[in-house]
Amino acid sequence: MAVKKRKRFDRVLAVDLGNGMVKIRSKNLETEMEYVVNLPTAWAYKRDASSSLHTKQLDLDTYEVDDVEYVWGKDIAEVPNIKIAYGHENRYKTEAYKIMVKIALAKAVHELKIEPTESIYLVTGVPSEETGTVKEDEIVEAFMGENNGIHEVGVNESEHMFKIAHVEVLSQPVATVLGRYLDEEGYEADAEYASMKVAVIDIGGGTTDLDVVDGLQRMRGYVSIPKGFRDVYDYIKQEIKEQYPSHNVHDYKLFKSLKSKRYKPSKRFEEVDFDDAMEKGINDVAIEIQQAIMNSWKDLTDIDEVLLIGASAKLFQDKLAKVITGMTIPANHDISNVEGYYRWGMNKVGDEL
Predict the structure, then answer these.
(1) CATH 3.30.420.40 residue ranges in the chain?
(2) Three-state DSSP class for 242?
(3) pTM
(4) How far is CA 234 from the centre of its chain?
(5) What does the pLDDT look like over 151-182, one tens digit per residue?
(6) Residues 187 and 347 sit within 8 Å (Cβ to Cβ)
(7) Whose C-alpha in 56, 95, 183, 302 is 20 to 30 A from the C-alpha of 284?
(8) Which of 92, 178, 87 has the alpha carbon at shortest distance from 135?
């Protein structure tokens, strides 16, 4: 009698705890719909949010990790004393990062109704400068936790136990290209990418990375400059300070105001028009990126495609087009990395699901 082969994995979960936003990509097996989360890389203690929760209707969930209650969600910027889980050289070792990992995983497990018996194949990534370094081990340790991948959490008073069976760490630029090479089921979608030479410009919160991926392999000679959209926020904050010297505002508060380009500290005070400050910030950051492109990529004639990604990609498109022609901004430019993680995970274990 033939023995049925036991499945090693039951779910693919892709997570990118970026320097600004947490991105999660998976699939709801009940509805067959794609599952995408894109929320700030910041959490707060529930005790600090209590007054806000009593006076406002906030889009926040409560998470219990190791007997401590936290809140996280779309309106986390409305909570005082939020904890930022990025920006430090050893961020993967910090408690803030490890708590953010458990909260993000708990959200996915809760909303996807993942059972304790399921084995999760998790894919995440690191920038080129951390690829092949001890940082990869640190990020694996953060996701696996202290109990061999088994986690116990609470979400809105519901208890969950789940198991991370495997953590794979990809190079972020390679993941971006894999997201175009593979389809959502993990099968080859565009065979040309297997031999294409692709340049990737990734504008993040704190850095901008320039990479070349040739035949789905990352090339040496990557460049990372310490400029990103958080620098644009600094210009906006300075403009607000000009009008309200004692007022402090963090990036996630400003994020909600970017579309209108106006910030109002409260109903009692006049709004600040930061259109010019934002444009100056974008221009100055763009100049730094232009310089990096011209210094690093002196000859692009053998490049088949140039991808411009990151949540702010469209804001920089026209300025960067002055030094590099024919750029492509993917439709999912704000989640390109995590989409690549997910599709690679499906390529590896999708047939088991």
Answers:
(1) 11-193+332-352
(2) helix
(3) 0.94
(4) 21
(5) 999 999 999 999 999 999 999 999 999 999 99
(6) yes
(7) 302
(8) 92
